[in-house]
Write a structure and sequence with these properties.
The two termini are 53 Å apart. Helix content is 61%, strand content 5%. Bound molecules: arginine.
Length: 461
């Protein structure tokens, strides 16, 4: 049987086998078939309304497309060798309805078809990623809720800086994900436009009602220039960019937990269900989930870089280079959907180790509290900073915590120091002194938990 092809009339020679292999995209774009059927059905309705099909033809094509969908669903396309998904769908449609299938692509090009399909695919992918982000956000908020009283060092530059709580740290990783949900929603809104009816580049020769097609496909607005719309893939790049940011956030979280899970810190205990062993070292309990989450970010960022470099230098309009967009997009979405549930599970099951966290607190971390108290007594902050710095240096030279410096030594630096040191209070007192909104105090943390619980419960706005 002759191979079904969407082109060829002007050729005398069949395509070389090496070209066929290079040109084929079915192995990548097969997953677009449900969207190709949807856009084809919208197209059938549009060209029927424009007078290209009579009612009987419209019904045959539309029902035929449904039967093609049923066949593809049950695996009829699994070993297909068509050039791409659009060719596959048309070939099967011929099998279902005969020659009337030849009317389907009246006034339509694969150029407006593929970008329409891809936009529809992206909208579903965004919904899937968003619901995983929601779940991951909820896992962090739930860790935070049970860690409101778990005091630990807060770090900057990898150095112990000030006491905070486990809740505060978990929330610091939840806020970026809330912003990412907003980014996904923005990307979804911007990409929800309909290029269908713009054909190869210059618009369709059939006077279809593009508004009606867009409504049928659930798209919000029309692409306004066919040359732009058929060649534009910034919606793919934008989604990859958002996934790149998501992956970067997840990678930062994973990297931090990786440190905390080490024996040296011992701040968290990962569930065995999310660890693997070593083939040589019997004692090992490796946090692979965290390492892989970190590594998947590199891969997704690679997809983004690949997509941007694919687009740069292309003139307006469709160029076959763009066929490579899908493997990058699908890889990034698949990788995201593989990573997010795993890291979420690990976070749901991990246990903070409160006493290890507390052991890591060091009274030098109250240096800022001391400086603030000197300021309250009328010293300028710059001077107070210097005086407390001197105190820290003395503590270091005596190898004692800041709070154990003998009173007579402390008072040589500033007469108020012995009293102020005596009134520093507990770690919690120090945390509560940082009461600005968004700070580490209990009230602020509880407010953040409330806000984020709402954010991760609702649809993004
Ligand atoms: N498989 C192609 C792609 O993904 C479909 C569009 C082909 N268009 C064309 N004029 N050959 O980009």
């Amino acid at each position: 049987m002759e191979r079904h092809q969407l082109w060829g009339g002007r050729f005398q020679v069949a395509p070389n086998a090496a070209l066929v292999e290079l040109n084929e995209s079915l192995s990548v774009d097969f997953r677009l078939w449900p969207y190709d059927i949807r856009s084809a059905k919208a197209w059938v309705a549009a060209i029927a309304q424009a007078g290209v099909l009579d009612a009987a033809e419209e019904s045959r094509l539309s029902k035929g497309l449904d039967r093609v969908a049923t066949r593809l669903e049950r695996g009829d396309g699994d070993n297909a060798t068509d050039e791409d998904v659009h060719t596959l769908v048309e070939r099967l449609l011929y099998e279902e309805v005969g020659d009337v299938a030849g009317k389907l692509n009246t006034g339509r090009s694969r150029n407006d078809q593929v970008t329409t399909d891809l936009r529809l695919w992206c909208l579903d992918a965004i919904a899937a990623v968003d619901s995983e982000l929601q779940a991951l956000g909820n896992a962090l908020v739930s860790q935070a809720s049970s860690g409101v009283d778990t005091v630990m060092p807060g770090y900057t530059h990898g150095q112990r800086a000030q006491p905070v709580t486990w809740a505060y740290v978990m929330l610091a990783h939840a806020w970026p994900l809330a912003r990412d949900r907003g980014r996904l929603a923005d990307a979804a809104d911007r990409l929800a436009e309909s290029p269908l009816g713009l054909a190869a580049l210059a618009g369709s020769g059939i006077a279809v009602d593009r508004e009606q097609i867009a409504r049928e496909l659930g798209l919000k607005r029309l692409s306004q220039n066919g040359l732009d719309a058929t060649g534009a893939r910034d919606f793919v790049a934008e989604l990859l960019f958002v996934l790149g940011i998501v992956a970067t956030h997840v990678s930062r979280l994973a990297g931090e937990l990786f440190t905390y899970a080490s024996a040296e810190y011992g701040f968290v205990r990962l569930s065995e269900a999310y660890c693997t062993g070593s083939s040589l070292l019997p004692q090992k309990r490796n946090p692979d989930v965290l390492e892989l989450a970190r590594a998947k970010a590199s891969r997704i960022l690679g997809d983004l870089a690949g997509m941007l470099s694919l687009e740069r230098g292309l003139p307006a309009g469709y160029n076959k280079d763009l066929q490579e967009d899908k493997s990058l997009l699908f890889d990034a979405v698949d990788t995201t959907l593989l990573t997010l549930p795993a890291i979420r599970g690990a976070i749901e099951e991990m246990k903070p180790v409160a006493d290890r966290m507390e052991m890591a607190l060091d009274h030098t971390m109250l240096a800022t509290d001391l400086a603030d108290q000197l300021v309250a007594g009328g010293v300028t902050f710059r001077e107070a900073h210097g005086l407390v710095g001197n105190l820290v240096r003395v503590a270091e030279s005596l190898s004692v915590p800041l709070t154990d410096i003998p009173a007579e030594t402390a008072s040589t630096i500033h007469p108020e120091f012995p009293t102020l040191i005596g009134s520093l209070g507990t770690w919690r007192d120090s945390i509560e002194r940082r009461s600005t909104m968004g700070g580490a105090s209990k009230q602020s943390v509880e407010r953040q938990i409330e806000l984020l619980t709402q954010q991760f419960a609702a649809d993004p706005t």
